[in-house]
Amino acid sequence: MSTIGIILGSSRPGRQGEPVARWVHDIASARDDATYEFIDIAEAALPHLDEAIPPVAGAYTRPHTLAWAERIARLDGFVFVTPEYNHSVPGALKNAIDFLFAEWGNKAAGFVGYGPTGAIRAVEHLRLIMSELHVATVRAQAALTFATDFADRTTFRPAKESRVVVEQLLDQVVSWAEALEPVRLKAQA
User: Which stretches of 38-119 are DSSP H helices?
Assistant: First the structure.
């Protein structure tokens, strides 16, 4: 059975992403097709990238990098939950991704964006970043907006239709994670 990480990509105090990510994790945890793990990058407490050797070499030396690598390596796929900052991904999420290389590869990823426009530009940037890391991204994407999924633009209250999209996204991530298993095994050999 695949293990999928639900990664909360904002570390900002007062962020609105935690209820969104918990909601996605709750939906996922009610399923029996994979194991789902909640990952909050704020709890990973990664500093700015501080490894002397580029991550592509896999020669990590810092304890926080080694712990982060072990956590990501054991996953088969990801669902990134992200806001959009300045038409792109939050710096903390990009930093967390940049710490590693091979640990991301040959896995599947889906995206749940939230904010005024559903973080669609941030997700498009994440798709490009993931492709460089050999991650297959799925088509289904949840774009949660303040107009439809938040009361008074602050309290998360997802529309019924949003749950359907998250279920489709999870179906695709699990399917692709399973399909990529032989590729991951070959890369590890």
Answer: 41-44, 63-73, 91-98
How many Å apart are CA 21 and CA 10, to the nearest integer? 10
pLDDT single digits (tens) 111-162: 999 999 999 999 999 999 999 999 999 999 999 999 999 998 889 999 999 9
Dmax over CA atoms of the chain, in Å, equals 52
pTM of the entire predicted model: 0.97
Return d(Cα 187, Cα 104) in angstroms, integer.
12
What is the rounded CA–CA span in Å between residue 153 and residue 141?
A: 21
Contacts (Cβ under 8 Å, ≥6 apart) of 78: 4, 5, 6, 7, 107, 108, 109, 110, 135, 173
Q: Which residue has the tokens 């997700």?
A: 123
Tokens of 70: 């072990």
Q: How many CB atoms lie within 10 A of CB 37?
A: 17
Side chain identity at residue 68, one-letter code: W
Instruction: Please state, in angstroms and rounded to a whole number, the distance separating the CA atoms of residues 123 and 57.
Output: 27
Quick one: which H or E segment has residue 168? helix 160-179
